[in-house]
Design goal:
heterodimer; A: 329 residues; alpha/beta; Rossmann fold; 2 domains; six-stranded mixed β-sheet; 12 helices; elongated; B: mainly alpha; 11 helices
């Protein structure tokens, strides 16, 4: 892709903390105007990547351009064109929501009058007008996040970085943030977000890169990534355990794919190519052979399964093992 | 929606300085808003030195003797001024730590503003606060019977010396705030401020302390400033035959300068290391 069409481009980014390689040849191309998800377990290098891209951290090697500017040589230009939402809502809790926005606006040098006008608009847009004069410490987690988001949008940046935007929020706060993020790309903005929640990446992102060990292991749309596992699966739950083997044989020969048999749940599963044809033929043939099914379903593989097949470990497992390491944030 | 044009990042030194000054002013206003939002916190901060004056002057004062004679309250007040400057370390540190832990420092760093503006804003707010504390403490001292004896000009000099010490200690606070990120560490620093403030000539003359403790107290940078301000205010207790006591006026400039020369580069280096 040509540089002009890219919001973010990194080549061979490297960053080491002591002995630990946080980024080890990190290559990324983010087109303009999409929500792009970096999905990976804790410690995969997502936060480090965001911190390099938002000029907070200097990489040891490689290059990174954001909105067409080099993050180390043209940091000031980059800073005018990005918004950053870190893992905590970075607002002054002692000030009111409005005071926060006016202060940040003035620090962006848009002038006092403009800063005040912009503050009111953003409060309105994020449904904070009523709470605008209350100190931010009285806000709920979701409200604080919205204020944080509003502060990031003062200069209407072309690229927005969200580092685990919903970590620590209750389901309501999470939905709140998801709604806001969807609205952000409407005016041609690019959103690059990190998450360890598959559901979040699936819900929000147009494109996803799976990150593991400081590099991108695979990139695609959520559908493409799921197709990587060989498409949809059929799953049949049987009424009687002794039907498992004949059912496995029938499904295997019908679909031409090796079935997997789950004895504990009396379930037989297999990858299908043609969804509807597979469903009808499996249902009919089982019935003809006197095998009673409790449930027959077609389902798409989850991103978790994709991740597992690509990296050999799931996201949850690695999150647990990671808690024992010390990671620079 | 208001159409906002992205301002040009200044390239020449004068325009850059303009941005730094504008940002510092914005951050000064931020500090003043904090005072307005949390008046109880400000009052609590002021109540502490006032309580100390009442406690030491009122309760222990009658039993205290001033080396070379004189009224204990007259001796104590300059010590209290110096001590409240020293406690400013904690105030500066708390501000820096709070911004860092809540991600506000990161937001500033991801914005087109220089590190200089952040620090300058912090300095102005802290120096303003310390000036207010000093004026109020002096007022309390006057009510309790303290006063300066040698005229207004030397007294103003004493005031300036105290703020010089505060300015030097500002960099200690900024450095500690960047190094110590946990609340536990911060409260440990607060605890250490007590011996720093007391093992000095603030409350009692080092000559009356056991030999080794007296020496430490005399070489405490706070002692030089306290001694020098006592001279300028014409307050008692300015005896002492050691070199450090005899050169208190000189040392009240040398110590802050040394502290600044050590902690300013340390703080700058630590701030830069945030991006490593």
């Amino acid at each position: 892709m040509a540089d002009a069409e890219l919001a973010v481009r990194t080549e061979a980014l490297r960053k080491k903390y002591g002995d630990k390689e946080a980024l080890s040849g990190f290559d990324l191309e983010v087109p303009r105007g999409v929500v792009y998800g970096l999905l990976g377990p804790n410690g995969a290098g997502k936060t480090t990547a965001i911190r390099v891209l938002s000029t907070l951290l200097k990489a040891d090697g490689g290059t990174a351009r954001v909105a067409g500017f080099d993050v180390s040589a043209q940091a000031a230009q980059v800073r005018q064109r990005i918004g950053l939402l870190g893992q905590h809502a970075a607002v002054d809790e002692d000030l009111s929501g409005r005071q926060n926005l006016v202060m940040f606006g003035r620090l962006y040098h848009i002038g006092k009058r403009n800063a005040q006008r912009r503050a009111d608009e953003l409060l309105e847009r994020f449904s904070l007008t009523e709470a605008g004069n209350k100190p931010a410490k009285q806000y709920s987690g979701g409200m604080r996040r919205r204020l944080d988001l509003a502060a990031s949008l003062i200069l209407a940046p072309g690229v927005l970085f969200l580092d685990e935007p919903t970590t620590g929020l209750d389901p309501r706060g999470r939905n709140d943030v998801w709604e806001s993020v969807r609205g952000l790309v409407a005016d041609g903005r690019t959103v690059l977000l990190t998450t360890q929640y598959l559901e979040e990446a699936d819900q929000l992102a147009d494109m996803i890169s799976l990150i593991d060990g400081g590099r991108v292991v695979r990139t695609g749309t959520p559908d493409q990534l799921k197709n990587h596992l060989g498409g949809d699966r059929i799953e049949v739950v049987l009424r009687r355990p002794h039907d498992l083997e004949p059912a496995g044989r029938i499904i295997g020969s019908l679909l031409g794919a090796a079935p997997d048999v789950d004895r504990d749940n009396r379930r037989v599963g297999a990858v299908v190519k043609d969804r509807v044809a597979a469903l009808t033929s499996v249902a009919r043939t089982l019935d003809e052979n006197g095998i009673e099914a409790e449930d027959i379903a077609l389902r798409r593989p989850t991103l978790d399964e994709v991740f597992l097949s690509l990296t050999g470990h799931g996201t949850a497992v690695s999150a647990e093992s990671r808690d024992k390491e010390v990671t620079p944030s | 929606m208001t159409a906002i044009t992205t301002p040009e990042v200044p390239t020449n030194p004068i325009a850059k300085l303009g941005w730094v000054l504008a940002d510092s002013w914005t951050l000064t206003l931020r500090g003043l808003s904090h005072w307005a939002r949390n008046p109880t916190q400000v009052l609590a901060g002021l109540a502490f030195p006032i309580l100390m004056v009442l406690l030491f002057g009122g309760i222990f004062g009658s039993g205290m003797q001033v080396e070379g004679g004189g009224d204990y309250m007259d001796y104590l007040m300059p010590g209290m001024f110096v001590m409240s400057m020293a406690f400013g370390i904690g105030e500066t540190m708390a501000g820096v730590t709070a911004d860092a832990s809540k991600g506000v420092t990161d937001r500033f760093r991801s914005m087109p503003m220089s590190a200089g503006s952040v620090v300058l804003g912090q300095s102005i707010v802290n120096m303003l606060y310390s000036s207010v504390v000093l004026v109020i403490l002096m007022g309390c001292g006057v009510i309790a019977g303290w006063s300066w004896q040698d005229g207004f000009a030397p007294a103003l000099g004493g005031f300036a010396l105290l703020l010089l010490l505060r300015f030097a200690l500002l960099w200690v606070g900024i450095y500690l705030g960047l190094v110590i990120t946990s609340p536990e560490g911060a409260s440990a620093v607060y605890t250490l401020l007590f011996p720093l403030g007391i093992v000095a000539n603030t409350f009692a003359s080092p000559e009356m302390m056991p030999g080794w403790l007296g020496t430490i107290a005399e070489w405490n940078p706070l002692s030089s400033t306290a001694h020098a301000t006592r001279e300028l205010f014409g307050n008692p207790g300015v005896g002492g035959t050691s070199w450090i006591a005899e050169n208190a006026m000189l040392m009240s400039f040398v110590w802050p300068l040394l502290i600044f020369l050590v902690f300013f580069p340390l703080a700058v280096r630590k701030y830069r290391a945030l991006s490593r």
